């Protein structure tokens, strides 16, 4: 018999960006909220001050801030005829394992998606016709548009303290910003970060080719900042320890820095740490959830009753929670029916490795999102007529901080990996070598999906999530274009050696760390036959369950996901507070 | 291993804040003034081995000296402290693969599915070094450490290419493990026992654990002559 906690208005599963933003909205509206977080409490001054933070072996190589595969991992295969096997070592699922979730260790690229990214189906059909879609591709509109989300992007950027420059302010195009972005209602709260030798070389070269470079919006504060919740942040010192690290300087946009300190002051909020939610529990009629069941650190099982259940774990974990809770119809690959596990997408990565001759790029100076990009070949920003694919990529260079262990294999092709020749080549490449990164769109396919593994279990004895995935023909075609453009820019930058790279030339693998952006599987949409959630990220089937995160994306854009994840959370919070609390039921008729 | 054993094993992991009390936190930031969670390090003294036998340490030292040879760029891997670094790592949670998924059947899969081996890093070294010693004695009449450098390179190359049969241990997997760990010992912060006198950071021009680059970020494309800084200077 489980131990039962007192009932609350809302229980939040996972206290990362989604969970903390939702908790802030709901507690401010007067609801009693309990968040249940799998990892421990962490604190800047204790867990990653400057005397602890700058440790590559601990945080990056050994991934000390991530959920270890020993506790939960996925199984993986490229196609349904193979047997899926567990990803046993660190791989592309960089799941958070602390208060703050993945938002504590993220790099900080704080994007808005393009208007096209939310309406890829209708915009493609209108411009090119449905023949533009390759066979088996799943392309559908999100049910929410860029214009719907704009006020929530604005709010997220202000809470997070994003540094950037507008390229489209209320319809007016502004050189130096991203002129391809959707219309913004306001400037970024902080000016862009400083530039580096690398971003300067990229901007000069791409501008001379007729493209439109800009500095990437960054979740690092370019100056001291106080956010709308009253939390103060310090200016970034460009130490270069962002991705995989906590920030020791209150300069990175994290839930820990931007939201959690406010939550902790509220009497109607509490967080249960080191406690793992196993499932949501359903009422006998299956139409509502009664709360969640979780296991604490002493292996004691508890029930937390609640009127509203919010899943805000990582994307794959949200999908797994849906399947373990039996919410929504699981996707059946054979028939194509069902929605939970359907429409999985990743990120299509190609580009170029470039090596200069006598440079001092000083890439150890940087910040997680200190980057320059062009969007001339992203989304539908260019004419795809005659190109037999949709989508593209943001093409960028990153000054995110280079460190000795992680770069030891970044060498010209054919270089020995050990011995005096390696030492000499690595010493040269450390200052002269870098890469142009095409971070591409990814569209779902009928043969790529998530379900529960029939054999392998986690430490609680529950089935692991199984990922069946490989790149599709649309990915390969878009990646080739981006590879060619990256090579063109690399040569223009004056690199002595330019080596094309393309992840889609091989089979996909969780160990090919081209990207850690995994998406979909419990997507939002307009039709309950093709989406697990309605346009408010509310389960079509169980109306008091809301699911937040990149699991809602029917496709991935040529960007990092967090800005959109944050905006969608605030959009859903508004619907809950202004509509759902008065009239408990589906927010969209099904 | 069951859940309790896995979590107990995790508890010794540096960086995993398992010392924190599971608690219902509310009403204030649970902040402990004056506390910093530095990684707990074994302190075996300067020369005491905690995992390797003397013979194993000699073989690993010889390999470290071929992977990182002494030349005009730096001292060799052995002198840089790579053996001490690896010895400490293998004696800790890394050596027993505490973070890796170890449940269920081990089935050989595709390259995309990654290593599916029941061997933890410490097992791979123990069994692999013994098998390598047998191979070297059978083929050359002496152990790896006693071979001339050119022969040592040939053995490493055969392991790297996967053409050497070491029986229970996959030679290619063992090579990748040793290469990674020797590089780590050479390149990680000296806090962990390697990178003696910041030798690799001096070689690369890496400034180390610097907190603030605001005064130099505008010196674009210039050689910056930093004296590298270790975490030791900051924490100990």
What does this structure look like?
Chain A: Keywords: FAD, Flavoprotein, Oxidoreductase. Chain A: GO terms for molecular function: flavin adenine dinucleotide binding; gluconate 2-dehydrogenase (acceptor) activity. Chain A: It comes from Methylorubrum thiocyanatum. The complex is a heterodimer of chains A (590) and B (236). Chain A is α+β, with helices and mostly antiparallel strands. Chain A has a single domain, classed as FAD/NAD(P)-binding domain. Helices cover 24% and strands 20% of the residues of chain A. Chain A contains 15 helices and 27 strands. In chain A, strands 1, 2, 3, 12, 13, 14, 15 and 26 form an 8-stranded mixed sheet that branches. The radius of gyration of chain A is 23 Å and the shape is globular. Chain B starts with a helix and ends with a helix. Mean pLDDT of chain B is 89; it is low at 14-21. Chain B has a domain at 51-100 and 118-196. Chain B has 236 residues and is mainly α. Chain B has 8 helices and 1 strand, in the order αβααααααα. Classes of the chains: A alpha+beta (590), B mainly alpha (236). Chains A and B meet through α2, α3, α4, β5 and β12 of A and α1, β1, α5, α6 and α7 of B.
| Unreliable parts of chain B | 14-21
Using only C-alpha atoms, the radius of gyration of chain B works out to: 21 Å
SS strand fraction of chain A: 15-25%
Task: Please work out how many helical segments of chain A DSSP would assign.
Answer: 15
Approximate helicity band of chain A: 10-25%
Number of strands of chain B: 1
Oligomerization state:
heterodimer
If you average the pLDDT of chain A, what whole number results?
Answer: 97
SS class of chain A: alpha+beta
**Percent strand of chain B:** under 5%
Mean pLDDT of chain B: 89
Q: Which two chains touch over the largest interface?
A: A-B, 103 and 95 residues
Largest sheet: number of strands, sense, barrel closure of chain B = none
Distance between the termini of chain A: 36 Å
Estimate percent helicity of chain B: 25-40%
CATH superfamily of chain A: FAD/NAD(P)-binding domain
